[in-house]
Amino acid sequence: MFDYHMHSSFSGDCTVDMEEMVKGAIAKGVSEICFTEHIDYDYPDDSIEFDFDKQKYDERIIELRRKYEGQIRIKKGVEIGVQPHLLERYDGMLKEESFDFIICSMHTVDRKGLHYGDLFKGSTVEEASLKYYNELLHCVKNFTNYSILGHVDLIKRYAPEVLENDFHDVLREIFNVIIPAGKGIELNTSGVRYGLPNGLPSDDVLKLYKECGGEIITLGSDAHKPEQIAFDFKESLELLQSIGFRYIATFEGLKPTFHSIDRL
Ligand SMILES: [Zn+2]
Ligand SMILES: [Zn+2]
Fold it and tell me: Cα(5) to centroid of ligand 2, in Å?
């Protein structure tokens, strides 16, 4: 099993030491993990800094790889929070760094953090959702420095009343940009953890991605605590298989490897 979305104290919203996450993953029988620490430039909440010391991160990953060799494989990833005005800045940073895997996520829309609900003030859920998807579309049209899109319908976590099959037109446009560019999406199981009826994205969006020709998909818990690692993975693999996905991707040096779901 591979958990390709997790955080440690290198992320501004997580206090758990990296080694505790590694131990937690081993205890759950996960064979490979990828840390995807947050970099979210220009985040609307100044009290949190979503950036970290890249050299220390690199050193810690190398140290833990050595220490737990033969027990688990540890990959070095990052989750960047894109906004239309930040794309060049991310390109510049990523040119200087080497990651195995880059998640492109959007946590901020119209310069408002989704987490605080500000986006929904003064606009309907439909308007806010469309703003979210249109900004994401703008980003994928103008930015290619990533492996997969993170929790592509994240807006649903904050507006669960958005129905299945909503916004498929703009989602299809997004998929029609990213799939030919060799990018993928993830199934992020935190949706289930937060009490949604499904992961992020929801089943209808997974089906739409498949229908558009999408093949690259990773599975991630978005764990911020050891006990959240690999949450709901068995069910998620079964779901992906039932939709027609046959492979789960892992990454090394930004190159994907495909693993047959049958054998997991
Ligand atoms: Zn995220
Ligand atoms: Zn995350």
Answer: 6
